[in-house]
Amino acid sequence: MKVLITGALGGIAQGGVIQVLEKNFELKLTDYKEPEKELKHKFIKTDIRDYLEVKKIVKEADAIVHLGAIANPSEDPFLIYSTNVMGTINLLESAWQNNIKRFIYASSIHIYGLPFNPEYLPIDEEHPLNPCTPYALSKFLSEETGRLYTKRYDFTFISLRIGSVFLRKESYNNLKKENIKDRQEVLWNHIHPRDIGQLIKLSLLKDIKGFEAFNAVADDHTFPEISSLELIRRFFPLVKKINNKDNFLIRKEASLISIEKAKRILGYKPNYNFRDYQKWETLI
Ligand SMILES: NC(=O)c1ccc[n+]([C@@H]2O[C@H](COP(=O)([O-])OP(=O)(O)OC[C@H]3O[C@@H](n4cnc5c(N)ncnc54)[C@H](O)[C@@H]3O)[C@@H](O)[C@H]2O)c1
Protein backbone atom coordinates (compact mmCIF):
# COMPACT_ATOMS: atom_id res chain seq x y z
CA MET A 1 0.00 0.00 0.00
CA LYS A 2 1.32 3.44 -0.98
CA VAL A 3 0.90 5.92 1.87
CA LEU A 4 1.33 9.69 1.70
CA ILE A 5 2.35 11.29 5.03
CA THR A 6 1.86 15.04 5.50
CA GLY A 7 3.75 16.92 8.23
CA ALA A 8 6.47 14.34 7.67
CA LEU A 9 9.26 16.51 9.08
CA GLY A 10 7.35 17.17 12.31
CA GLY A 11 8.04 15.76 15.75
CA ILE A 12 5.50 12.94 15.72
CA ALA A 13 6.40 11.74 12.21
CA GLN A 14 10.14 11.85 12.83
CA GLY A 15 9.87 10.72 16.46
CA GLY A 16 8.43 7.30 15.64
CA VAL A 17 5.60 7.19 13.11
CA ILE A 18 7.79 6.84 10.01
CA GLN A 19 9.95 4.18 11.68
CA VAL A 20 6.85 2.11 12.44
CA LEU A 21 5.11 2.58 9.07
CA GLU A 22 8.12 2.01 6.82
CA LYS A 23 8.13 -1.67 7.82
CA ASN A 24 4.73 -2.27 6.18
CA PHE A 25 4.09 0.44 3.60
CA GLU A 26 5.65 2.30 0.69
CA LEU A 27 5.93 5.85 2.01
CA LYS A 28 5.85 9.20 0.27
CA LEU A 29 6.59 12.14 2.56
CA THR A 30 5.57 15.76 2.33
CA ASP A 31 5.98 18.95 4.37
CA TYR A 32 6.36 22.64 3.59
CA LYS A 33 9.80 22.75 5.22
CA GLU A 34 12.97 21.55 3.51
CA PRO A 35 14.49 18.42 5.03
CA GLU A 36 17.73 19.13 6.89
CA LYS A 37 19.12 15.64 6.27
CA GLU A 38 18.78 13.06 3.56
CA LEU A 39 15.57 11.05 3.88
CA LYS A 40 15.10 7.33 3.23
CA HIS A 41 11.79 7.92 1.44
CA LYS A 42 10.60 10.00 -1.48
CA PHE A 43 9.94 13.59 -0.33
CA ILE A 44 7.95 16.34 -2.03
CA LYS A 45 7.79 19.85 -0.63
CA THR A 46 4.18 21.08 -0.51
CA ASP A 47 2.21 23.74 1.26
CA ILE A 48 -1.08 22.05 2.15
CA ARG A 49 -2.87 25.40 1.95
CA ASP A 50 -2.36 25.33 -1.82
CA TYR A 51 -5.03 23.12 -3.42
CA LEU A 52 -3.28 22.85 -6.79
CA GLU A 53 -0.07 21.63 -5.15
CA VAL A 54 -1.96 19.19 -2.95
CA LYS A 55 -3.82 17.74 -5.93
CA LYS A 56 -0.51 16.84 -7.53
CA ILE A 57 1.02 15.06 -4.53
CA VAL A 58 -1.90 12.77 -3.70
CA LYS A 59 -1.69 11.07 -7.10
CA GLU A 60 -0.84 7.37 -6.84
CA ALA A 61 -1.40 7.20 -3.08
CA ASP A 62 -3.68 4.48 -1.71
CA ALA A 63 -4.07 6.21 1.65
CA ILE A 64 -3.24 9.51 3.34
CA VAL A 65 -1.87 9.98 6.86
CA HIS A 66 -2.49 13.63 7.61
CA LEU A 67 -0.19 14.93 10.36
CA GLY A 68 0.68 18.33 8.84
CA ALA A 69 -0.71 21.21 10.87
CA ILE A 70 0.01 24.17 13.07
CA ALA A 71 0.33 22.11 16.22
CA ASN A 72 0.89 25.00 18.61
CA PRO A 73 -2.48 26.18 19.99
CA SER A 74 -1.05 29.62 20.86
CA GLU A 75 -0.30 30.42 17.21
CA ASP A 76 -2.24 33.05 15.27
CA PRO A 77 -5.85 31.80 14.74
CA PHE A 78 -5.85 32.77 11.04
CA LEU A 79 -2.75 30.64 10.49
CA ILE A 80 -4.33 27.79 12.46
CA TYR A 81 -7.57 27.86 10.45
CA SER A 82 -5.95 28.32 7.04
CA THR A 83 -3.48 25.47 7.65
CA ASN A 84 -5.44 23.04 9.77
CA VAL A 85 -8.91 23.43 8.29
CA MET A 86 -8.22 24.44 4.69
CA GLY A 87 -5.23 22.09 4.53
CA THR A 88 -7.46 19.18 5.54
CA ILE A 89 -10.19 20.21 3.09
CA ASN A 90 -7.61 20.41 0.28
CA LEU A 91 -6.41 16.91 1.08
CA LEU A 92 -9.92 15.47 1.41
CA GLU A 93 -11.09 17.01 -1.85
CA SER A 94 -7.96 15.75 -3.62
CA ALA A 95 -8.47 12.29 -2.10
CA TRP A 96 -12.02 12.23 -3.43
CA GLN A 97 -10.93 13.34 -6.91
CA ASN A 98 -8.33 10.54 -6.97
CA ASN A 99 -10.58 7.85 -5.53
CA ILE A 100 -8.36 7.41 -2.46
CA LYS A 101 -10.32 5.34 0.00
CA ARG A 102 -8.57 5.82 3.35
CA PHE A 103 -7.59 8.88 5.36
CA ILE A 104 -6.00 8.80 8.82
CA TYR A 105 -6.24 12.13 10.61
CA ALA A 106 -4.20 13.51 13.54
CA SER A 107 -6.89 15.04 15.72
CA SER A 108 -6.38 16.00 19.35
CA ILE A 109 -7.83 15.41 22.79
CA HIS A 110 -8.23 19.21 22.90
CA ILE A 111 -11.48 18.53 21.05
CA TYR A 112 -13.11 17.45 24.36
CA GLY A 113 -12.47 20.90 25.84
CA LEU A 114 -9.48 22.27 27.66
CA PRO A 115 -9.25 22.47 30.59
CA PHE A 116 -11.21 19.25 30.80
CA ASN A 117 -14.43 19.49 32.67
CA PRO A 118 -15.49 15.89 32.21
CA GLU A 119 -19.11 14.86 32.42
CA TYR A 120 -17.90 11.38 33.27
CA LEU A 121 -14.63 9.49 33.45
CA PRO A 122 -12.73 7.98 31.82
CA ILE A 123 -13.32 10.14 28.76
CA ASP A 124 -14.31 7.93 25.85
CA GLU A 125 -15.07 8.84 22.24
CA GLU A 126 -18.78 9.32 23.05
CA HIS A 127 -18.04 12.13 25.49
CA PRO A 128 -19.51 15.48 24.34
CA LEU A 129 -17.07 17.57 22.33
CA ASN A 130 -16.39 21.09 23.50
CA PRO A 131 -13.68 22.82 21.43
CA CYS A 132 -12.63 25.95 23.34
CA THR A 133 -9.74 27.29 21.24
CA PRO A 134 -9.13 27.94 17.52
CA TYR A 135 -6.79 24.93 17.54
CA ALA A 136 -9.42 22.62 19.06
CA LEU A 137 -12.06 24.01 16.69
CA SER A 138 -9.75 23.40 13.72
CA LYS A 139 -9.51 19.74 14.77
CA PHE A 140 -13.27 19.50 15.26
CA LEU A 141 -14.01 21.06 11.85
CA SER A 142 -11.50 18.75 10.19
CA GLU A 143 -13.11 15.70 11.78
CA GLU A 144 -16.56 16.83 10.70
CA THR A 145 -15.36 17.53 7.15
CA GLY A 146 -13.86 14.04 7.06
CA ARG A 147 -17.18 12.62 8.24
CA LEU A 148 -18.91 14.48 5.41
CA TYR A 149 -16.71 12.78 2.81
CA THR A 150 -17.58 9.36 4.26
CA LYS A 151 -21.21 10.19 3.41
CA ARG A 152 -20.32 11.29 -0.11
CA TYR A 153 -18.50 8.20 -1.29
CA ASP A 154 -17.02 4.88 -0.27
CA PHE A 155 -14.44 6.43 2.05
CA THR A 156 -12.88 5.67 5.43
CA PHE A 157 -11.85 8.55 7.69
CA ILE A 158 -10.19 7.52 10.94
CA SER A 159 -9.54 10.27 13.42
CA LEU A 160 -6.95 9.67 16.11
CA ARG A 161 -7.52 12.02 19.04
CA ILE A 162 -3.91 12.25 20.08
CA GLY A 163 -2.82 13.13 23.61
CA SER A 164 0.34 14.84 24.87
CA VAL A 165 3.54 13.84 23.09
CA PHE A 166 6.98 14.31 24.64
CA LEU A 167 9.93 13.62 22.40
CA ARG A 168 12.76 13.95 24.92
CA LYS A 169 13.73 12.11 28.06
CA GLU A 170 14.28 15.49 29.66
CA SER A 171 10.60 16.36 29.13
CA TYR A 172 9.61 13.12 30.85
CA ASN A 173 12.06 13.91 33.69
CA ASN A 174 10.38 17.31 34.01
CA LEU A 175 6.97 15.66 34.26
CA LYS A 176 8.19 13.87 37.36
CA LYS A 177 9.14 17.17 38.97
CA GLU A 178 5.88 18.94 38.10
CA ASN A 179 3.25 19.93 40.53
CA ILE A 180 0.35 17.54 40.18
CA LYS A 181 -2.00 20.44 39.41
CA ASP A 182 0.04 21.45 36.33
CA ARG A 183 -1.36 18.73 34.07
CA GLN A 184 -4.70 18.20 35.71
CA GLU A 185 -6.27 19.91 32.71
CA VAL A 186 -5.11 17.14 30.37
CA LEU A 187 -5.74 14.34 32.86
CA TRP A 188 -1.99 13.60 33.10
CA ASN A 189 -2.06 11.77 29.77
CA HIS A 190 0.90 10.97 27.51
CA ILE A 191 1.70 8.92 24.40
CA HIS A 192 4.91 7.88 22.70
CA PRO A 193 5.09 8.62 18.91
CA ARG A 194 5.77 4.94 18.23
CA ASP A 195 2.45 4.04 19.81
CA ILE A 196 0.87 6.66 17.53
CA GLY A 197 2.66 4.84 14.69
CA GLN A 198 1.10 1.59 15.88
CA LEU A 199 -2.37 3.18 15.91
CA ILE A 200 -1.87 4.58 12.40
CA LYS A 201 -0.64 1.22 11.11
CA LEU A 202 -3.68 -0.55 12.57
CA SER A 203 -5.98 2.15 11.17
CA LEU A 204 -4.49 1.62 7.72
CA LEU A 205 -4.94 -2.14 7.85
CA LYS A 206 -8.21 -2.78 9.72
CA ASP A 207 -11.38 -3.39 7.79
CA ILE A 208 -13.22 -0.23 8.90
CA LYS A 209 -15.70 1.65 6.74
CA GLY A 210 -16.89 5.23 7.16
CA PHE A 211 -16.02 7.56 10.04
CA GLU A 212 -14.41 6.39 13.30
CA ALA A 213 -12.65 8.32 16.07
CA PHE A 214 -10.23 6.78 18.56
CA ASN A 215 -8.52 8.25 21.59
CA ALA A 216 -4.77 7.91 21.16
CA VAL A 217 -2.98 7.90 24.52
CA ALA A 218 -0.92 5.49 26.60
CA ASP A 219 -2.46 2.97 28.95
CA ASP A 220 -1.42 4.88 32.07
CA HIS A 221 -1.01 8.42 33.44
CA THR A 222 2.06 10.35 34.53
CA PHE A 223 1.48 10.22 38.32
CA PRO A 224 1.50 6.43 38.81
CA GLU A 225 2.23 6.81 42.52
CA ILE A 226 -1.37 8.03 42.87
CA SER A 227 -4.15 5.72 41.72
CA SER A 228 -6.55 6.91 39.03
CA LEU A 229 -9.50 6.58 41.40
CA GLU A 230 -7.67 8.75 43.95
CA LEU A 231 -6.91 11.37 41.26
CA ILE A 232 -10.60 11.46 40.37
CA ARG A 233 -11.60 11.73 44.04
CA ARG A 234 -9.18 14.58 44.71
CA PHE A 235 -9.36 16.61 41.50
CA PHE A 236 -12.72 15.80 39.95
CA PRO A 237 -15.03 15.34 42.94
CA LEU A 238 -18.02 16.63 40.98
CA VAL A 239 -17.80 14.01 38.23
CA LYS A 240 -21.12 12.19 38.36
CA LYS A 241 -20.17 8.86 36.88
CA ILE A 242 -17.13 6.61 36.70
CA ASN A 243 -17.50 4.05 33.95
CA ASN A 244 -15.83 0.68 33.92
CA LYS A 245 -14.61 1.17 37.51
CA ASP A 246 -13.26 -2.39 37.57
CA ASN A 247 -10.60 -1.36 35.09
CA PHE A 248 -9.30 1.21 37.62
CA LEU A 249 -9.30 -1.46 40.33
CA ILE A 250 -7.40 -3.95 38.17
CA ARG A 251 -4.99 -1.35 36.75
CA LYS A 252 -4.63 1.30 39.43
CA GLU A 253 -2.87 3.77 37.13
CA ALA A 254 -5.11 3.26 34.07
CA SER A 255 -5.44 6.32 31.85
CA LEU A 256 -8.32 8.70 32.59
CA ILE A 257 -8.80 8.94 28.84
CA SER A 258 -10.23 5.65 27.66
CA ILE A 259 -8.44 3.60 25.00
CA GLU A 260 -10.84 0.66 25.27
CA LYS A 261 -12.31 1.38 21.82
CA ALA A 262 -8.88 1.40 20.16
CA LYS A 263 -8.00 -1.83 21.96
CA ARG A 264 -11.27 -3.51 21.01
CA ILE A 265 -11.63 -2.42 17.38
CA LEU A 266 -8.06 -1.81 16.26
CA GLY A 267 -6.26 -4.25 18.54
CA TYR A 268 -4.12 -1.44 19.99
CA LYS A 269 -1.56 -2.60 22.58
CA PRO A 270 0.40 0.37 23.94
CA ASN A 271 4.07 -0.46 24.36
CA TYR A 272 5.17 2.65 26.27
CA ASN A 273 4.08 3.01 29.89
CA PHE A 274 5.21 5.95 31.98
CA ARG A 275 6.73 3.77 34.70
CA ASP A 276 9.31 2.47 32.21
CA TYR A 277 10.22 5.69 30.42
CA GLN A 278 13.82 5.62 31.71
CA LYS A 279 14.32 2.43 29.70
CA TRP A 280 12.95 3.78 26.41
CA GLU A 281 15.81 3.89 23.94
CA THR A 282 13.88 5.91 21.39
CA LEU A 283 13.78 9.19 23.36
CA ILE A 284 16.52 11.70 22.65
N1 LIG B 1 2.53 17.01 19.62
C1 LIG B 1 1.42 16.80 20.30
O1 LIG B 1 1.44 16.73 21.56
C2 LIG B 1 0.11 16.61 19.56
C3 LIG B 1 -1.03 16.28 20.31
C4 LIG B 1 -2.24 16.10 19.63
C5 LIG B 1 -2.31 16.22 18.25
N2 LIG B 1 -1.19 16.55 17.55
C6 LIG B 1 -1.31 16.69 16.10
O2 LIG B 1 -0.43 15.76 15.49
C7 LIG B 1 0.07 16.31 14.24
C8 LIG B 1 1.59 16.29 14.24
O3 LIG B 1 2.05 17.03 15.36
P1 LIG B 1 3.58 17.30 15.66
O4 LIG B 1 3.74 17.33 17.15
O5 LIG B 1 4.44 16.39 14.86
O6 LIG B 1 3.70 18.79 15.15
P2 LIG B 1 4.93 19.50 14.41
O7 LIG B 1 4.68 20.96 14.47
O8 LIG B 1 6.21 18.99 14.95
O9 LIG B 1 4.74 18.97 12.94
C9 LIG B 1 3.78 19.49 12.06
C10 LIG B 1 4.39 19.55 10.68
O10 LIG B 1 3.43 20.16 9.81
C11 LIG B 1 4.15 20.99 8.91
N3 LIG B 1 3.29 22.06 8.39
C12 LIG B 1 2.80 23.14 9.04
N4 LIG B 1 2.14 23.94 8.19
C13 LIG B 1 2.20 23.34 6.96
C14 LIG B 1 1.72 23.69 5.68
N5 LIG B 1 1.04 24.83 5.47
N6 LIG B 1 1.97 22.85 4.64
C15 LIG B 1 2.66 21.69 4.85
N7 LIG B 1 3.15 21.32 6.02
C16 LIG B 1 2.93 22.14 7.09
C17 LIG B 1 5.29 21.58 9.75
O11 LIG B 1 6.35 22.02 8.92
C18 LIG B 1 5.67 20.41 10.65
O12 LIG B 1 6.75 19.67 10.13
C19 LIG B 1 -0.53 17.71 14.14
O13 LIG B 1 -1.69 17.64 13.35
C20 LIG B 1 -0.89 18.05 15.57
O14 LIG B 1 -1.96 18.99 15.63
C21 LIG B 1 0.02 16.75 18.17
Could you describe the 3D structure shown?
This protein has nine helices and nine strands. It is an alpha/beta fold and 284 residues long. The protein has one domain: NAD(P)-binding Rossmann-like Domain (Rossmann fold). The strands form two sheets. A seven-stranded parallel beta sheet has the order 3-2-1-4-5-7-8, with helices on both faces. Strands 6-9 form a two-stranded parallel ribbon. Strand 4, helix 3 and strand 5 form a beta-alpha-beta unit. Helix 1 packs across helix 6, helix 2 packs across helix 3 and helix 3 packs parallel to helix 4. The radius of gyration is 18 Å and the shape is globular. The two termini are 30 Å apart. The model has no long low-confidence stretch (mean pLDDT 95). The protein binds nicotinamide-adenine-dinucleotide.
Record the SSE blueprint.
Layout: E1 2-6, H1 11-21, E2 26-31, E3 42-45, H2 51-57, E4 63-66, H3 77-97, E5 102-108, E6 120-121, H4 134-152, E7 156-162, H5 169-177, H6 193-205, E8 210-216, H7 228-235, E9 241-242, H8 245-250, H9 260-266
Parallel strand pairs: 1-2, 1-4, 2-3, 4-5, 5-7, 6-9, 7-8
Nicotinamide-adenine-dinucleotide binds next to helix 1, helix 3 and strand 5.
Beta-strand residue percentage: 15-25%
Poorly predicted sequence stretches spanning 5 or more consecutive residues: none
The CATH topology label is Rossmann fold
From the helix content, strand content and strand pairing, which structural class follows? alpha/beta
Number of domains: 1
Largest sheet: 7 strands, parallel
At the fourth CATH level, what is the homologous superfamily? NAD(P)-binding Rossmann-like Domain
**Rg value:** 18 Å
Q: Output mean pLDDT.
A: 95
Give the overall shape. globular
What is the CATH architecture descriptor?
3-Layer(aba) Sandwich
Series of H and E elements:
EHEEHEHEEHEHHEHEHH
